[in-house]
Amino acid sequence: MTVLDRVLRRAILSAADSPRLGRLVQRHGMRLGAARFVAGETVDEAVPVLRRLNERGLLTNTTILGEGVTDEQQTRVVVDDYRMLLDRIAAERLRTNVALKLTHLGLALGEELAYANVRELVEHAASLGNFVRIDMEESAYVDATLRIYRRLRESGLVNVGTVLQAYLYRTEADLESLLELEPNLRIVKGAYLEPPEVAYPRKQDVDAAFARLVERSLTAAGFTAVATHDERLIEHTIAFAERERVPRQRFQFQLLYGVRPQLQLELVRRGHAVLVAAPYGPDWYRYLMRRLAERPANLLFFARSLLRR
Ligand SMILES: Cc1cc2nc3c(=O)[nH]c(=O)nc-3n(C[C@H](O)[C@H](O)[C@H](O)COP(=O)(O)OP(=O)(O)OC[C@H]3O[C@@H](n4cnc5c(N)ncnc54)[C@H](O)[C@@H]3O)c2cc1C
């Protein structure tokens, strides 16, 4: 990552918190290119996108976009929407599970509220034979997220997983303490703006931590979702799994909708399980800004759409 990329990344992630810019982008953004990363604004738009991905041999997950809900009644609406989504996935026979954010379910209001809400959804998913993954958000939420994941697992629910972020110094210790649960973990690099007190500032340190976490997770019991578009890390994972004779059912690759679609299909062709994360919903602004920050060159893609209008 160049210095310019780093500066742009910070600027884009800071802009992600601007409600004014959000309203502006939200008005035209879908037509300008947000649709590249988002499967639609409604469930009816998302279903055919998910089906097309399934037809190409890709597993999928979806998310109703939204985060940072600060009104308890609003979290009830979100839970009901997710219940309907899970029912719809079952009715449509999609190979799709659900990933959600605890701050969408009220974590900023209180841990008990978020726990009760996510528990209801994990139980509902279990009744339908489906699975829920709890995304990882800013570092301030990591302790509460891992506590909630542990509580769900210790209460006997098995159809739930969470995420660990390689950029945090704490994550290797977090992985060690979770291993006794035989966890289902998605390993990512980390998408938020974090200070050097908590996260590696240098990309090569994040990449090295990612490789260590994947290796440790693959050689322990449980399931590992290797979520990256970084071809070097993907090839490293494949070579490591072959060398250590890790069965292919014990891990999968996960990539984002709209990012490296050819690589997604190539991995399927090579016999690997690949899941594409394809979120939807009208509240896509902050999600989009994180995708732009990961690759500031994506801004050019937006600028070109703007010029073509
Ligand atoms: C399925 C999935 C779930 C995720 N869940 C979480 C989560 O719960 N919490 C969290 O903090 N983060 C999450 N992330 C985001 C993650 O933390 C990274 O920000 C993101 O994956 C980019 O890093 P990378 O591993 O692809 O590697 P990078 O080193 O950033 O990128 C490697 C290469 O991939 C390509 N690339 C990467 N990102 C993009 C993009 N946006 N657009 C176009 N090309 C791109 C580029 O060619 C780049 O050179 C998730 C990512 C995935 C794939």
Question: What are the bound molecules?
Answer: flavin-adenine dinucleotide
Strand tally is 8
Percent in helix: 40-55%
- Unreliable stretches, pLDDT < 50, 5 or more residues? none
Global Rg: 19 Å
Strand order of the largest sheet: 1-2-3-4-5-6-7-8
Order of helices and strands: HHHEHEHEHEHEHEHEHEHH
The quaternary state of the protein chains shown equals single chain
Class from helix and strand fractions: alpha/beta
Biggest pleated sheet: 8 strands, parallel, barrel
Question: Given the C-alpha coordinates, what overall shape results?
Answer: globular
Tally of individual helices: 12
> What is the average per-residue confidence, as pLDDT, rounded to a whole number?
93
Strand content: 5-15%
Distance between the termini: 31 Å
Outline of this structure?
The protein is of the alpha/beta class and 309 residues long. It contains twelve helices and eight strands.
